[in-house]
Design goal:
CATH class of the largest domain: Alpha Beta
Mean pLDDT: 89
Helix content: 25-40%
CATH superfamily of the largest domain: Glycosidases
Keywords: Carbohydrate metabolism, Glycosidase, Hydrolase, Polysaccharide degradation, Signal, Xylan degradation
Oligomer: single chain
Protein name: Beta-xylanase
Shape: elongated
Distance between the termini: 52 Å
Number of strands: 17
Number of helices: 13
Strand order of the largest sheet: 1-2-3-4-5-6-8-9
GO biological process, one term: xylan catabolic process
Bound molecules: ligand G3I
Largest sheet: 8 strands, parallel, barrel
EC number: 3.2.1.8
Number of domains: 2
Organism: Streptomyces lividans 1326
Order of helices and strands: HHHEHEHHEHEHHEHEEHEHEHEEEEEEEE
Strand content: 15-25%
Radius of gyration: 24 Å
């Protein structure tokens, strides 16, 4: 009963949703100065994972609303969240995200219908026939509730084992229903919401390897037999142990050549500074080079809420400042400028439009255990009233003091704003300085993009 009421009320808001989407489209036609609008200029979406519990935080919501054109609920659509006891569906948190997204004209990716993890405890003990019935009922319940509102669903998630075997992963579904559970889930999903793109989603399948070969063979088989599959999601969780593969683009292309869309679904890259920015550039360029790569989603808005927060893998730091990786993604998408973080000073027509700055670093003193660094901020062709610069230190180093600036920290990334010296005439300079302990590393810090307002 509650599901029927909810569906009717979702349909009744359709006019509002369409109006919001038009507003977003109008904004993106004005200037490609955000991730979403720049990606739209390339015919792609740029999304993020979202947690309902953070939507009430104003900087979180402002950054989300300004930058992204698609959202994926990070946990709220999973089986344990939506059907904690059999036949009893709970959509409160997921609805909050979907409603928020629709009010901002954003699309929604559905994540995820059938997955071995985050299963409520009642699922695993079921016998084979009962499990089949429960799986199909879960797909129908979730997809029915959001019918017509989800652009792509991760129908089955992570069904293949890691390592070199290319085998299916052991799970209640695999162990009791055999290989055919994936096909059955896709057929049920197609009937439940014919408008949604149906995706298979996995990790460590980003390059050509035994696991991606096994997924490739499955997709090829599905396409040859008419099993409904529309896309493959590449999670793309990268770090030094699992770097962006050199054959990433080739791998995306070979899947696209099977006649499916490809999507980058959970992108995050541990690291900082220019190295992290360069890796993000590789990913965006790979997607743009594959015409059937329809969009990218990063796995969170801010480093502080990332599932890998220690690795600072996202585009905004814990204070919602744009990291060098943000500028790299925006530029790879063909965008320009940037908003400078909370407060949205980059909106067309706002005071401060055209404000820009550069930041350059020099070492002004050096001794065996430490050094003094100086960063010079120079205003561009217009006067500025404030600036923000990021400095990424080698992991071992630590800063003991800083002058003529106000720092905040996220891991080894120092974001510095003015103390007294924010206002600069066109072309004028100021500088801040700091003392760092080398702790065994004499490497130079990296200075990221300077933003001004
Ligand atoms: O909300 C509860 C909180 O009330 C409780 O106090 C706390 C205690 O541990 O747990 C909180 O729930 C956690 C939840 O994230 C929300 O933060 C769960 O323990 C934790 O397991 C859960 O982790 C999620 C993980 O999937 C679970 O497998 C991550 O947020 C989420 O980012 C991650 O996402 C997965 C994708 O779905 C699939 N691909 C891999 C990706 C990363 O692991």
């Amino acid at each position: 009963m509650s599901m029927i009421v909810r569906r009717l009320s979702r349909a009744a808001t359709a006019g509002l949703v369409a109006a919001a989407a038009l507003t977003a489209a109008a904004h993106s036609a004005e200037a490609a100065d955000t991730l979403g609008s720049a990606a739209a200029g390339q015919g792609r979406y740029f999304g993020t994972a979202v947690a309902a519990s953070h939507l009430g935080e104003s900087d979180y919501a402002a950054t989300l609303d300004r930058e992204f054109s698609s959202v994926t609920p990070e946990n709220e659509m999973k089986w344990d969240a939506t059907e904690p006891s059999r036949g009893s569906f709970t959509f409160t948190s997921a609805d909050r995200i979907v409603d928020h997204a629709q009010s901002q004209g954003m699309d929604v990716r559905g994540h995820t219908l059938v997955w071995h993890s985050q299963l409520p405890s009642w699922v695993s003990p079921l016998g084979a026939q009962d499990l089949r019935t429960a799986m199909n009922a879960h797909i129908n319940g979730l997809m029915g509730h959001y019918k017509g509102e989800i652009h792509s669903w991760d129908v089955v998630n992570e069904a293949f084992q890691d390592g070199g075997s290319g085998a299916r992963r052991s799970s209640p579904f695999q162990d009791k229903l055999g290989d055919g559970f994936i096909e059955e889930a896709f057929r049920t999903a197609r009937a439940a919401d014919p408008a949604a793109k149906l995706c298979y989603n996995d990790y460590n399948t980003d390059g050509v390897n035994a696991k991606s070969n096994a997924v490739y063979d499955m997709v090829k088989d599905f396409k040859s037999r008419g099993v409904p599959i529309d896309c493959v999601g590449f999670q793309s969780h990268f770090n030094s142990n699992s770097p962006v593969p050199s054959d990433y683009r080739h791998n995306l292309q070979r899947f696209a050549d099977l006649g499916v869309d490809v999507q980058i679904t959970e992108l995050d890259i541990e690291g900082s500074g220019s190295a992290q920015a360069a890796d993000y550039t590789k990913v965006v360029e790979a997607c743009l080079a594959v015409s059937r790569c329809t969009g990218m989603t990063v796995w969170g808005v801010t480093d502080k809420y990332s599932w890998r927060s220690g690795g600072t893998p996202l585009l905004f730091d814990g204070d919602y400042n744009e990291k060098p990786a943000y500028g790299a993604v925006l530029s790879a998408l063909g965008g320009s400028g940037g908003s400078g973080g909370p407060g949205d000073p980059g909106d067309p027509g706002d005071p401060g439009d055209g404000a820009s700055c550069t930041a350059t670093y020099t070492r002004t003193a050096d001794w065996s255990s430490g050094y003094n660094g100086q960063v010079t901020i120079t205003a561009g062709a217009e006067p500025i009233s404030s600036w923000t610069a990021t400095v990424t230190l080698p992991a071992q180093q630590s800063v003991s003091s800083l002058w003529n600036g106000t720092p905040t920290w996220s891991g080894n990334v120092m974001t510095v704003r003015p103390s007294w010296n924010g206002t600069l005439a066109a072309g004028a300079s100021t500088s801040f300085g700091f003392t760092a302990a080398k702790n065994g590393s004499d490497a130079a810090p990296t200075v990221g993009t300077c933003t001004a307002s």
